[in-house]
Amino acid sequence: MTDDATPAAGATAWTGMVPVDDTALAVTDTGGPGLPVVYLNGQFATQGYWRRVLAELGPQLRHITYDERARGRRSKRSADYSFEAAVRDVDAVLAARGVERALLVGWSYGAFVGAHWASRNPQRAIGAVLVDGAQPYDWLTEEMEQRIRKQFRQWAPLMALMRPTGLTPRMTHGQMSECNIELGRIGSARELGPVLDAITVPTRYVVASGSSLGSRGDEQELIRAALPSVTERNPHIAISAKVPSNHGAILKKDFRAVADAVREVAVLDRPGAGR
Questions:
Q1: Distance between CA atoms of 80 and 78, rounded to whole angstroms?
Q2: What is the CA radius of gyration of the chain?
Q3: pLDDT per position in the chain (275 positions), as tens?
Q4: 25 by DSSP, 3-state: which?
Q5: For the chain, where are the E strands, in sequence order?
Q6: Is the Cα dihedral 202, 11, 89, 71 positive or negative?
Q7: Which stretches within 22-82 are classed as H helix?
């Protein structure tokens, strides 16, 4: 780790709430002198999804996880569930934990957040690992918007039953569908392409295979097919691995590949390492 990344080196382990805007986020920081790594969850997932990755990486790194607005059991509701709010929340968590520079690891929605944050903060981003997300593709159509809204209406009763467990967000089905639709706009080639092209820190993709909940046919494989053009344009970005598991199972079944990608980026922050 470089000297620039050590303002909070030696921090003790901490779990608590971080205020931001009109809400507060549940944060866990393992502390220690290791390289700070911030984990960015899937759109409606929780920090618990990362437990296998964290166990595989061990205490050599400083792991910071948190639940986004209205996600998990403790993060509070908000009037703002926008993508920009999610990006701001990264800054709020880092500031609260005294971390100036960090390696970002994002899965699904979190990969988009990580890509944007790394692109906007080249001096603060040690690097990024993007797990089956942040792949530029024009998949959002009017028909797809209607399908998304219909799906969340259908899922609403089940999600309400699961809400006390923290496995589903404390958001209305309308709020959840709008978040998903906004992501479709952000993920278009026109919107996301320039963000990825502007990244100047080591960035690695871990890519899943096949389809998962909410997708049809080869939709997700078509989206993933956009990645080679990204890596051809930007030498800072590479595909670390394509794994057998699908989008929903990747952190459970292929956590070792994700951990390997984190190590691959982390080692590049050592003095004299090639980029």
A1: 5
A2: 18
A3: 333 333 455 689 999 999 999 999 999 999 999 999 999 999 999 999 999 999 999 999 999 999 999 999 999 999 999 999 999 999 999 999 999 999 999 999 999 999 999 999 999 999 999 999 999 999 899 999 999 999 999 999 998 888 888 889 999 999 999 999 999 999 999 999 999 999 999 999 999 997 766 556 577 888 899 999 999 999 999 999 999 999 999 999 999 999 999 999 999 986 545 44
A4: strand
A5: 14-20, 23-29, 36-40, 62-66, 102-107, 125-131, 203-207, 237-242
A6: positive
A7: 51-57
Coil vs helix vs strand at 128: strand
In angstroms, the CA 167 to CA 38 distance is: 21
Prediction pTM value: 0.92
The residue whose two tokens read 């997932």 is 45
Query: Cβ(95)–Cβ(119) under 8 Å?
Result: no
Sign of the four-CA dihedral 26, 165, 44, 35: positive
Match 């970005």 to its residue by tokens. Answer: 237
> Do 76 and 99 meet the contact criterion of CB atoms below 8 Å apart?
no
Contacts of 150 (CB under 8 A, 6+ apart): none
φ and ψ at residue 145, rounded to 5 degrees: -60, -45
Q: Are residues 18 and 66 in contact, defined by beta-carbon separation less than 8 angstroms?
A: yes
